[in-house]
Write a structure and sequence with these properties.
- By secondary structure, the chain is of the alpha/beta class.
- The chain has 11 helices and 19 strands.
Length: about 375
């Protein structure tokens, strides 16, 4: 049996304000092509289908179309809810969806009930563990003494192993789980799931099954041959610019885990970071290579340029992040508010603020405007 492991779609997410639905639709369509090309039997998605608990209508449309294409390509689908999803919303109509080959595992009560898929060697049991918020989960699981993510996942896996042990000998197993497993490398784009300062769980929690399809961390990585993150199909932070996004193709043979192959995904639009003075960025030919990238720009002009983002977008239509770090660094030192304003007039405080935030003292016209504004404010207070 061939399984495609993907996760953390985050459909509906934006990138520094830029709409990503078209990119997400393109990359999820590619997954359907992979299902056909690689003769995939089952697609597993361990959580974070959506980026928010109440996704937009457009996000639901994109996700629904993607699931439809994957099913039409010939794969059965097993999905769990992640920490970004609303488990009740995602799991609505789960029993009806199962009849069409879409198996949603979003409730604690059913995490030990596998989706059973047959091949010529027998049965493969797919167990879907939804994201478990420790405090409510420990009561729902009937283990009030359990502490943190490790405690609730330990009980969840105990139930999985208990069910697996009661099945016919030779039954192979795949577990879907949304968690931060020790040894995994996080990215900037994941939302923390820390509880009491601890969010990691040891990989040994998942011992006893043939393959564990992990979700939550956005970089593809191997913690053990049977324990892997596929990562997100798109980069959701500039820290991920160097990552090669991928999925895992997992072969389950007669004895359990067989070959696992990595398939890298296409990049709808690259990410890049550049820095320099505004005029250089707008004129130098070397920057032509990043014109079509999602771009993070650091301006190094001594004085903060006015309307820098608008100027940059004349050449770089997909610039989404702008920072200013003047060449040579700043000369100001951090002061407490009381010390910064002590002995200064309102006008001096305002002028110092402008100088600190843009690297240049106000000119005569700006000083006149500040004086006029402060005088008007003073008159209003008197009245």
């Amino acid at each position: 049996m061939r399984v495609l492991h993907t996760s953390d779609w985050h459909v509906g997410r934006t990138f520094h304000g830029a709409e990503l639905l078209a990119d997400q639709e393109a990359i999820l369509s590619h997954l359907a092509d992979l299902v056909v090309d690689e003769a995939v039997d089952v697609v597993v998605v361990p959580g974070d289908i959506y980026d928010r608990a109440v996704p937009s209508a457009d996000a639901v449309r994109v996700a629904t179309a993607a699931l439809g294409r994957l099913r039409a390509a010939g794969a059965r689908l097993v999905l769990t809810s992640g920490n970004h999803d609303s488990a009740p919303r995602l799991g609505a109509f789960a029993d009806f969806a199962a009849a069409g080959g879409l198996h949603l595992r979003t409730t604690i009560a059913r995490l030990h009930e596998p989706v059973l898929v047959e091949d010529r060697h027998g049965t493969v049991a797919f167990y879907g563990i939804p994201y478990l918020e420790p405090e409510p989960a420990r009561h729902a699981l009937g283990v009030p003494e359990a502490r943190g993510h490790t405690g609730v996942l330990t009980e969840a896996m105990r139930r999985v192993r208990e069910d697996l042990a009661a099945r016919e000998p030779g039954t192979r197993s795949v577990v879907l789980a949304h968690a931060f497993v020790t040894g995994g490398a996080p990215s900037e784009s994941e939302r923390t799931i820390a509880v009491g300062g601890v969010e990691q769980v040891p990989g040994a929690v998942f011992d006893g099954v043939d393959y564990v399809a992990l979700g939550h961390l956005h970089g593809p990585q191997v913690l053990a041959p049977h324990l892997r993150y596929s990562g997100s199909p798109l980069a959701y932070s500039f820290q991920e610019a160097a990552q090669r996004k991928a999925v895992w193709l997992v072969d389950i043979d007669a004895d359990g885990l067989g070959e696992v192959r990595r398939r890298e995904l296409p990049v709808p639009r690259r990410l890049a970071k550049v820095s320099g003075k505004l005029d250089e960025l707008l004129e130098e030919p070397v920057f032509e290579q990043v014109v079509e990238c999602y771009l993070s720009v650091t301006l190094t002009d001594r004085v903060r340029p006015v309307d820098g983002m608008r100027s940059l977008r004349a050449r770089f239509p997909h610039v989404v992040h702008l920072d200013w770090q003047p060449e040579g660094g700043g000369t100001t030192t951090a002061l407490r508010y009381a010390k910064a304003v002590r002995g200064r007039s309102d006008s001096e405080i305002a002028e110092t603020f402008l100088s600190d935030t843009r690297g240049e003292v106000p000119n005569h016209r700006e000083q006149d405007l500040l004086t006029e504004a402060l005088e008007a404010s003073g008159r209003e207070e008197e009245e």
